[in-house]
Design brief:
This protein is α/β, with parallel strands linked by helices. It folds into 2 domains: 195 residues, Glycogen Phosphorylase B (Rossmann fold); 178 residues, Rossmann fold (3-Layer(aba) Sandwich). 43% of the residues lie in helices and 16% in strands. It has a 7-stranded parallel sheet with strand order 3-2-1-4-5-6-7, sandwiched between helices. It has a 6-stranded parallel sheet with strand order 10-9-8-11-12-13, sandwiched between helices. Helix 1 links the parallel strand 1 and strand 2. Helix 10 packs across helix 13. The longest helix has 20 residues. The chain is elongated. The structure holds ligand GMT. The site of ligand GMT has 20 residues, from helix 1.
């Protein structure tokens, strides 16, 4: 199949899923065309069957806001015509599903039918998409998609509750390449980050308010009162500065390292003992799955799709949003002795296998095939 993929190319779960999906599809022989404003970060090099088309928005003094949807849909029409693309897969409803619908309409004028698959990722539904200034257009473009997928059952239910949706929604969860994960936990350079007696706790996110970064700091503070530990904070975002300030204020700055965005997530997870994700909302929690796949147990909130990913007593534990004491207690129960920790590490990795890329990518392929078959009828 010849497939165009539209996504946010920078750091963030939806862009990661879209990019990894495109790479996996290309490896399976499909011709993949990424159409975005920047080369996706996880697309290290342009490999076989992968093309990248940059969307350029001309800056003009009259525009207070740059008309990205216009540039994106124009680029899509051009690319579809030039390469004979058969299917469009847009990730994140805003504004991609809307631009995708315009692309379909423009192509129809030339007698080209382009089926569109829209994948809902989370904040496009639960935070931004639900805002009154977007809701009408988001509802419209979801309903105009040929196939709609959501990354968890919880997100599907949120979408049906918040929007007037007339089309079916298929749940296709986030995925991970299990074969690419470390199988032993001994060769990592732990000594770079902590002493031999210290546990290493990690948080990775875009440091937005929805991630409850202050809870990460406070859960860690409570853990560090009980056992020697270090916290590694990976990512950049609006809450980072205040979190650093808070660490100094409560006297734990020497135990916390903020490392910013990193291309070495695998290395960091390899020497991590526990992953914290206390989010306010989380449609799936790809970062938690990545941790589990590396053998890192997860302490998370029990919001959104997290209970579909993190299994209590197996891959970690879940607590009510904001209950930092409960999260800390549960974390200590995992970290308290080597035997328990080793058991949770093994269990997390085994549990993550149900989201292996080899199981999930064929689900997308089957959806693509069915929509192309319907188009031929
Ligand atoms: O919240 C983020 O980390 C970024 C956001 C995005 O759209 O890139 O992530 C959302 O999509 C991911 C991939 O499907 C999900 O794993 C995340 O749970 C989801 N984030 C939220 O729902 C807050």
């Amino acid at each position: 199949m010849k497939i165009a993929i539209v996504c946010y190319p920078t750091f963030g779960g939806s862009g990661v899923v879209a990019t990894e999906l495109g790479i996996a599809l290309a490896e399976r022989g499909h011709e993949i065309h990424f159409v975005t404003y920047q080369q996706p970060v996880r697309l290290d090099f342009l490999a076989k069957n992968i093309h990248f088309h940059e969307v350029h928005v001309e800056k003009y003094p009259l525009f207070l806001y740059q008309p990205y949807e216009l540039a994106l849909s124009s680029k899509l029409v051009e690319t579809v015509k030039q390469y004979g693309i058969e299917l469009l897969h847009v990730h994140y409803a805003i504004p991609h599903a809307y631009a995708g619908y315009m692309t379909k309409k423009m192509l129809a004028e030339s007698g080209i039918h382009l089926p569109m698959v829209t994948t809902l990722h989370g904040t496009d539904i639960t935070l931004v998409g639900n805002h009154p200034s977007f809701k009408t257009a988001v509802t419209f473009s979801i309903n105009k998609s040929d196939v709609v997928t959501s990354v968890s059952e919880s997100l599907k239910q949120d979408t049906l509750r918040l929007f007037d949706i007339k089309v079916p929604i298929e749940v296709v969860p986030n995925f991970i390449d299990i074969s690419a994960q470390p199988q032993g936990f001994t060769e990592c350079q732990r000594e770079l980050m902590a002493g031999p007696e210290e546990r290493i706790i990690t948080h990775i996110s875009n440091f937005r308010p929805v991630k409850r970064i202050q809870d990460v700091v406070h859960v860690f503070e409570a853990i560090a009162r009980e056992i020697p530990a270090k916290l590694i904070m990976v990512g950049e975002g609006p809450e980072r500065e205040y979190a650093e300030h808070r660490c100094r204020e409560i006297g734990i700055a020497d135990k916390v390292r903020f490392v910013g965005n990193s291309n070495e997530i695998d290395k960091i997870l390899c020497f991590s003992d526990l992953f914290l994700l206390p989010s306010e909302k989380e449609s799936f929690g790809l970062a938690a799955l990545e941790a589990m796949a590396s053998g890192v147990p997860v302490i998370s909130s029990n919001t959104g799709g997290l209970p579909e990913v993190n299994k209590a007593g197996v891959s970690g534990y879940l607590s009510e949003v904001g209950d930092v004491e409960d999260m800390a207690q549960k974390a200590v129960s995992i970290l308290k002795d080597d035997e328990t920790l080793a058991r949770f590490k093994k269990q997390s990795q085994a549990h993550a296998a149900q989201f292996d890329i080899k199981k999930i990518v064929p689900l997308y392929e089957a959806l693509y095939q069915s929509v192309l078959n319907t188009a031929l009828l």
